[in-house]
Design a protein that fits this description.
Blueprint lengths: L22 H19 L1 H8 L4 H26 L5 H29 L3 H6 L4 H16 L2 H25 L10 H8 L1 H18 L4 H27 L15
Length: 253
């Protein structure tokens, strides 16, 4: 297992398990590396790797992820309307198909394995933290140019690919006995990583002639996305739906 690093000491870009050595990739990682590393070291992610995460916490996460994918699909649909580039349009269609596949296949597997009921899915509501994440992406998708939308969805693809790969490496000896092995291996796969590679390549093309001011705006969008990824897992670990725990009542929607 790898040595635990301080959250104040992010790993160098070149030591990331999943990285594309392009100027925009290095730039985005630099502005978010502290949150990125803290995200990997937080209890939810580490307990996933160890296989010790409670079933209740994983269930909370899966229900939130199921709801997240609904909005994630809408963001990609809106992105498609902002482009005349066949590459981007075709890719957005592929993403839509992949999201449907993930919801219907992967989530079905976990529903059967972990006893998540259809009633739980039907009654699930977004946590305040998940809602902040998807609302931010949707606002960008409705109001901002295409490149902003692509940057907004990049953290989900890139962070998951990096974390999945690092967990597979750090806990390789115990992974075969890990109840979350399928989850780790799915996000550690090269197929999943290619979704981040594609985004980074397109964003690199789209940002070559942008001003310093616009690049700083994209820096902010990316970092906020990484922060939202952190809070998505953190709130799942605490199983907290509302901004304050005492507001989290079953009948509140």
């Amino acid at each position: 297992m790898s040595t635990k690093r301080s959250a104040a000491t992010p790993i160098p870009f070149d030591q990331l398990s999943r990285a594309v050595s392009t100027p925009i990739a290095r730039r985005f990682y630099k502005v978010s590396s502290d949150v990125w590393q803290q995200g990997y070291e937080q209890p939810f992610v580490q307990e996933l790797g160890k296989g010790t995460l409670s079933n209740e916490r994983f269930t909370f996460y899966m229900l939130q992820d199921y709801l997240y994918l609904n909005d994630y699909a809408k963001v990609h649909a809106l992105a498609m309307t902002k482009s005349d580039d066949d590459r981007i349009i075709e890719r957005m269609v592929q993403v839509q198909q992949a999201i449907v596949g993930e919801r219907e296949q992967v989530h079905k597997t976990y529903i059967e394995r972990y006893g998540i009921t259809r009633e739980q899915i039907a009654g699930a509501r977004q946590s305040a933290f998940a809602r902040a994440y998807t609302s931010n992406m949707l606002a960008i998708a409705y109001a901002k140019p295409l490149v902003d939308v692509l940057v907004a969805v990049l953290p989900c693809a890139w962070v998951y690919a990096d974390y999945g790969t690092r967990l597979a490496q750090d806990f390789s000896e115990t992974l075969p006995n890990n109840p979350y092995q399928d989850w780790v291996e799915m996000y550690a796969s090269d197929d999943f990583w290619q979704s981040a590679v594609w985004l980074l390549d397109i964003i690199e093309d789209e940002t070559r002639d942008l001003s310093a001011k616009r690049l700083k705006e994209l820096d902010s969008i990316f970092r906020i996305g990484v922060e939202h990824e952190y809070m998505f897992w953190d709130s799942a670990y605490r199983m907290q739906r509302s901004w304050k725990p005492e507001w989290d009542t079953p009948d509140r929607h």
